[in-house]
Amino acid sequence: MAAKVPALELRWLFAERNKCAEKSEMMIAGVDKNETNRQNKAEKRKASEAAVKLNKKKKCEEEEIRRLEQQDQDILLGEQLLCEEYDSVTDDADNTFTPTYNLLKEEEENSIRFVDWLLNEKLGELSHLVTRYLNRPKLKRNMIPVLNAAKASLRRGVSPAATADITSGFLKDLIAAGILQPEMSYLACDPSKIERARKTVMSNAREIDQSRYMGEKLVGIGYDGRKDKHTRAMVTDSCGNTKMRMVKEERVSVSEEPTGRYLSHFVPDEPTYPEKPALKVAQSLYDIIVKHNSLDSIRYLAGDSTNCNTGWKAGSHAHLEKLLGRKLFWGICNIHTHELPLRHLIRILDGPTVSDVGFSGDVCSLLKDVSEMPYNPKFERMPEGEDLQPIPENIVKNMATDQKVSYKLVNALKAGELPPELQEVMCGPPNHARWLTTGERIIFMWTRKHGLSGHNLKVLRLLVKFCLEFYFKIYFDIKVKHHIEDAPYHLLSQIRILKTQPKIDRDAVTFYIRKGAWYSHPECLLLSLLASSDSSDRYFAVDQILKLRGMNEYGDTSVRDRVTPKINLSATSLKTLISWKTGQVAEPVFTCALPKKDIESFRETPYQVPKFSCHTQSTERCVKLVTEAAAAVAGPESREGYIRAQIQHREMMPVFLTKKDILCTFD
After folding, report:
1. Domain count of the chain?
2. pLDDT of 383-401, one tens digit each?
C-alpha cells in the first residue's frame, strides 16, 4: 500500500486519523491558484495553435480555388479564340462545313481527355475535387430486363457469363453495321445482369405453372428416382461459411399421366429404423397428391420394376395404396422389364458386367470398340424371325438416334445388305441402366471384322439372333403399341418367340420373363379383354367381373395383395395365360365405379381404356430435366424454376432449325 500511495497523501491520512476535534496538521484549504493559472495558460496556448492551423488551411484552399478559377478562365478564353479563328475561316470559305456526328463525338472525347490530363498535372490526387463539378454527361445504364435472353440461356444450358458475352457480341455487330449508334454501347450485358434476369424468369415460371394447373386434379402419376453425385448445393463448412459444392443426392422425379408433363420432384426423407426408403417415397407421393387435391381422382401409378417400387408387401406402390385406402392400377415399365432377359442372357453366355458400362466376357468386352472395327461386306445374313412393326419413314426420322439406327440395322441384317450410311455409323455408348445401345452394338458388331472364332463366335451368333428375333422385335412392338391394354399382348409375343429360340436361350431367360410378367395380373388381363375386338374375349371378361361383384352393384376398390400370378408358357391367348383361380382375380380399378348395366354393355361394344402408357419414358425425360437442373442451380425452388422455365420456352419454340422457327415467337 505504501509503495502505491504518494507520501503526501499518507501524511494527510495520518493527520486526519490523529486530529483533535476539527483541527488537523494538514487541513484542506481553498483553490490552488498557482496550479489553476498554469492549467488555464496551457489550454489557451493549445486553442491559439489550433486557430492558427485552421486559418492557414483556409488560406491554402482559397488560393487553390482562385488558381483553378483562373485556369478555367484561361481555358474558356482559349476556346473562344479557337472559335473565332474557326468562324473567320468558315466565313471566307465558299461552302459551309457541317461536322459529322462522329467528328463531334471525337472532339468531345479529346476535350475531356485534355481536361483530365491537365487537372492531373496540376492537382494530382486532388483532381477529383474538380471533375465531379464538371457538367459531363453521365454514363447511361442498361435497364432492359433481358428476360428472353435469360430464358433462352436456361433452355440451352448456357452459363450467365456465356450468355452475356454472346448478347454483347451481337450488340457490337449491330453497332459495327451502323444499325445502332456507338453511344448505344451501354446496352451491353454483364453476367450479373443475366443472373438476375434468370432468377426473375425462374420465379415467374413457377408462378405461371402454379396458376395454370391450379384446381386441376390428377388421374395418374409416374415416378422414378436417381442418385446423382453432380448435385449443386449450398454447404456450410466447419467455420460456418456457406459455399457452393457438388454433392451426392437422391431425387425422385414425378410426371403427370397420361400427358407425361413434368409435375414435381423431391428428395426423400431419411428413414428411421425400422422404416424403409420405400415408405418415405410413398409418403412424399401422397403429399403431392394431397397438394393437388386428388385423393379421390388418382387411379394410375407408374414406375419401374425395382423391388423398392413393386414389392407387394413393402414397396412404394403398396405403401401408397395403404395411405390412400384403396387400390391403384400399377403401370410397370414394359421396356424396363423387357431388358431383363437380354441382360441375364449376356451374363450367362458371356460373363457378368464389371462396371457401369463394362463387361467381363470375351465377346461383350469388345463392344466399347465396335465403332473402330472395319466393315465386313461379307457378313452373314440372318433372315429368321418375325419382321419388325412397320413404322412410317417420317416417324423413324423423328425417333431418337439410337432407336432409329437400331431399327434400320435390324432390317439391314435381315436383308443381308448394309446401306452406306449405316456402315460407318457411331453407336451410342453402352449403359447398364438402359440396354438399347448394348443390343445395338451387338448386332452392329456382326457386320464388322471382329476377329472372333470358335466358342466366342458361337456366343456372338446366339446374342445377335436373340437381339434380332426377340429383343428388338418386342422393343418396337412396345414403342408402337404402348398403351396399357396392349401390354399383356406383348407378354404373349415374348412367350411365342421364346419357343423359337435355342434351348440354351430359353433356359437362361424363362425365369426373368416370368419375373417381369407384371401385366399378367388379372386386373391387366381383364382390361385388355374388355377392350378386345373379339366378342368372345369381352364376354369372358364381363362374366369374370360380374362373378367377382356377386350381389354388389359396383366393384371392390379396397387394397389387395398385388401378387403376380404364375403364367402359362403354353398359352396362346390372354384367357389361357393364367389359371383364373377364385380369390386371385381382382377387377380393374377403372371399371369399379361403373354399374353392372355399363359392364354388361361391353359384351357388344369394346371398353375404351384410358390412354395410359405401359412404359415410363415420359417420366425418364422428367428425370433428365431434374438432373440437368440439379447440376446448374442449388435448392429445390431454384430447380423447380429452372425446369419450368425450360419447359415454357420449349412450348414457345419446340425446335430451332431455321429462322422461321424463331420468327414465329415474335409478337
Report:
1. 5
2. 888 888 888 887 888 788 8
